[in-house]
Amino acid sequence: MTSKASTVLAAAGIDRGEHRATKRQRKLDTRNRRLDYLVYIGARVAIMFVEMLSLRAGYALARAIGTAIYHFDRRHREIAIDQLRSGFPHWSEAKIRRTAKASIRNMVCMGLELLLTPRRIRPDTWRRHIRLRNMENVVATLIARDRPMVLVTGHFGNWELAGYFSAAIGLAFSSVARRIDNPRINDLIFGVRERAGQRMIYKQGAAARIERAFDSNEAVSMVCDQDAGARGLFVDYFGHPASTFKSIGLLAMQYEAPIAVICCRRLDGQFNFEIFNQRWIEPSEWADKDDPLRWITQEYTSALETAVRTQPDQYFWVHRRWKHAPRRVTRSHAEQ
C-alpha cells in the first residue's frame, strides 16, 4: 500500500482490520454455535417452503409477515415512524404509519426475492424481470475497465439485486459489506451473491482488497446511507444533518474515479424491477470546489434522497439514519 493511499484509507475509517478481526474472533468464540446451527436449519427449511409457493403466494406471505412484524415489533415500528416524521414533517400521521408498514413489508419482500434471484436472474432470462435506465456510463466503464469506479447505493428498493444482476451478466465488481455474525447464515446469504461472480469485501481488513481493486481499474460498491457516528461528515439528508462516512469521497478523490449512484426499485409484486443510475459524478465536477469532500458527499446523498422521495415506502426507515448529530443540534433530535 502506498503511503498516500494509507493516509486516505485511515482518514476514511478503513484500516487493515487486525484489531477488528481479533475482536470479531472473540465474539465468535462466545457465540452459541448450536443456536447458530438451529437458526441455519430453520432458514433452510424456510427456503424449501418458499420455493414450493407460487410467486403470487410468496409475495402475499411476505407482505403478511411484514404486517405482523409492524404490529408486534414495537421498537422497529417506532423507529420507522420517527424517521418518517423527520423526513416528511408535512405528512399526516396516517400516511406516515402506512408508509412505515409498507417499508417493513419491503424488507420481508426483499428477503423473498433474495431466495428467488438465482433461478430468475440469468444471462438468458434477466430481461423478463429487469429494465435499465440511464445505465450507459456505468456499463461502458465496467466493460472498458480503463479506470476505477465507485458505485454507491442505499437501503432503497432491493439494493442486493443490482449487484447480483451485474455479476450474472458478466459485469462483476466488488462490494463492501459487513460480515453477518452467524457464520452459517453469512455463507448462505453471501453465497447467493458470490455464485453469480460478485466479489465480496468484508469491512474487517478491507483496505488491502479495496486498494487492489482500484489499482486494477475495477469498480467497488459501497452503501452510502449508514450512520457514521460522531466523527462522520455531516451533510443534509431530508432537511437534517446526517453523519456520513468519508470513505466514498476520499477514495474517489484519491483515484480520480467517477461515482455512480445506483438504485433498484421494485415495480410490482411479480418480481419486476428497474435498475437506474440516479447520478453520475465525474472527477472534473469537484476539481474546482473549495471543499471537494463535502461537495461529493452532499451530491451523492442528495441523489439518493431524490430517488427515495419517488417511493419512500421502499426505503429502510428502521435504520436510525440520524442517530448521531453535530453538537450544535439539540439533544432531543440526536436521540432519534
Quick rundown:
The protein has helices at residues 3-11, 18-29, 33-52, 55-72, 74-87, 93-120, 136-144, 159-168, 183-195, 207-215, 247-255, 283-286, 292-310, 331-334, and strands spanning 130-133, 149-153, 174-177, 199-202, 219-223, 233-237, 240-244, 259-266, 273-281.
Overview of the structural elements:
By secondary structure, the protein is α/β, with parallel strands linked by helices. It has a single domain, classed as Glycerol-3-phosphate (1)-acyltransferase (3-Layer(aba) Sandwich), CATH 3.40.1130. 53% of the residues lie in helices and 15% in strands. It is built from 14 helices and nine strands. The strands form two sheets. The protein has a seven-stranded mixed beta sheet, sandwiched between helices. A two-stranded antiparallel ribbon has the order 6-7. A hairpin with a 2-residue loop joins β6 and β7. α1 packs antiparallel against α11 and α5 crosses α6. The longest helix has 28 residues. The protein is globular. The C terminus is likely disordered.
SSE layout:
Layout: H1 3-11, H2 18-29, H3 33-52, H4 55-72, H5 74-87, H6 93-120, E1 130-133, H7 136-144, E2 149-153, H8 159-168, E3 174-177, H9 183-195, E4 199-202, H10 207-215, E5 219-223, E6 233-237, E7 240-244, H11 247-255, E8 259-266, E9 273-281, H12 283-286, H13 292-310, H14 331-334
Parallel strand pairs: 1-9, 2-5, 2-8, 3-4, 3-5
Antiparallel strand pairs: 6-7, 8-9
